[in-house]
Amino acid sequence: MLTLSHDALVEGRPLAAGRCGVFMIARPEEWTAILARNSTSWGFYWFDPKDDALRVTVRPLKGK
Predict the structure, then answer these.
(1) Which of 3, 12, 46, 58 is the most exposed place for a label (fewest CB within 10 A)?
(2) Which residues contact 8 (CB under 8 A, 6 or more apart)?
(3) Can you give the pTM of this predicted structure?
(4) CA–CA distance, 3 with 58 (Å, rounded to integer)
(5) How far apart are CA 60 and CA 2, in angstroms?
(6) Distance (Å) of CA 55 to CA 23, 26, 59, 61
(7) What does the pLDDT read at residue 38?
């Protein structure tokens, strides 16, 4: 779960303050980060795309 006390920009897109569930779809070259309005569900069993607050694609960086 992610809690924002203020509105924010994520990859240049607005996300309203509040609680969000966090889901990731990881691929070797890019990840899809999904922030969902439903912050109480656990795992993909209850995941529903209609609850998306924001969905962005990002490129992973190798750690040191």
Answers:
(1) 12
(2) 14, 15, 17
(3) 0.79
(4) 20
(5) 20
(6) 9, 13, 14, 19
(7) 83
Residue with tokens 């990859």: 11
Beta-ladder partners of 57: 32
Residue 34 phi, psi dihedral angles, 5° rounding = -120, 125
How far CA 26 is from CA of 10, 23, 47, 58, in Å, comes to 18, 10, 16, 10
5-60 tens-digit pLDDT: 999 999 999 999 999 988 889 999 999 999 998 887 776 677 778 888 999 999 98
pLDDT at 39: 81
Instruction: Find out whether 45 and 23 touch, Cβ atoms under 8 Å.
Output: no
Residue 22, amino acid: V
